[in-house]
Design a protein that fits this description.
By secondary structure, the chain is mainly alpha-helical. It folds into two domains: 61 residues; 34 residues. Helix content is 91%, strand content 0%. It contains four helices and no strands.
C-alpha cells in the first residue's frame, strides 16, 4: 500500500497538529486536560453518530429513491391540484345552479 506524496504530506500535517495539541494539553492542569479530552471525545462521537444516523435513516425510509422517482413529484402535484379543482368545481356548480 503506497501513499502518494499528497497523502504523506497530509499525514505528516496531522501528526504535527497532534503533537502540538498533546504538548499544549500536557502543560495544562490534569482536571482541565481531562475535561478537554472528554469534550473532544464526545464531539467526535456526536459527529460520528449524526453522520451515520442520517445516512441510515434515509436508507431505511427510502428517501433517496423516493425523491429521485418521478412518481413522488406527480403525487405532490396531484395533492396540490385536487383541493383547488374541488373548490373551483364547487364554485362553478353553485353558480350554475343559482
Amino acid at each position: 500500500m503506497t501513499e502518494t506524496p499528497q497523502e504523506n504530506g497530509r499525514i505528516e500535517e496531522l501528526r504535527r497538529k497532534h503533537s502540538e495539541l498533546w504538548n499544549e494539553i500536557s502543560v495544562m492542569n490534569e482536571d482541565e486536560a481531562e475535561h478537554l479530552l472528554n469534550s473532544f471525545s464526545s464531539q467526535i462521537k456526536r459527529e460520528h453518530i449524526n453522520k451515520h444516523s442520517l445516512k441510515e435513516l434515509s436508507q431505511e425510509l427510502g428517501l433517496n429513491d423516493t425523491v429521485r422517482s418521478p412518481w413522488f413529484y406527480v403525487s405532490v402535484i396531484i395533492g396540490l391540484c385536487i383541493p383547488v379543482l374541488l373548490y373551483a368545481a364547487f364554485i362553478y356548480i353553485s353558480l350554475l345552479l343559482e
